[in-house]
Amino acid sequence: MPEFSAKTMNKFKSVVAKYPEKGAALLPTLWLAQQEFSAITPEVEEYVAGLVGVSLVRVREVRTFYTMYTPKPLGRYHLQLCTNISCSLLGAEELLEHLKKKLRINTGETTPDGEFTLSNVECLGHCGTGPAMQINDDFHENLTKESLDKILDLLK
Ligand code: FES
What we know:
Layout: H1 6-16, H2 26-37, H3 42-52, H4 56-65, E1 77-82, H5 85-89, H6 92-103, E2 116-121, E3 133-135, E4 138-140, H7 145-155
Parallel strand pairs: 1-2
Antiparallel strand pairs: 1-3, 3-4
Helix pairs in contact: 1-2, 2-3, 3-4
Bound molecules: FE2/S2 (inorganic) cluster.
């Protein structure tokens, strides 16, 4: 069974203290788990359920709803390209195909060197400046094939 490191357990305790009941801290606890274990595996789901005192089903529901929680470890860079309506109208589908070809992976996959994981996601809240993509904690807007190539070159 996985366990938080002492440092993460301290973070967990301070997160939980902000909520009236432990179960309400499920989302930030899952995020701590994602950072600590690189993935929310079934074992991690069980551990988190025990920590916050909610059912395993509840943890699974939340884990599968939000794209920031992943069942498999991600690459060093998680490329999340928005393919929702505004970004699609601005060319996101074409950019997704470009990324697949360039990285030689499909959505939901990680490059063999562990550098990039590619996902297509719903609206990132940058509809007016699409196509938009989130790479780890950073946002990139008004993307074109050329700007994507530059970003990938910089990350390599
Ligand atoms: S539709 Fe792409 S950011 Fe909203």
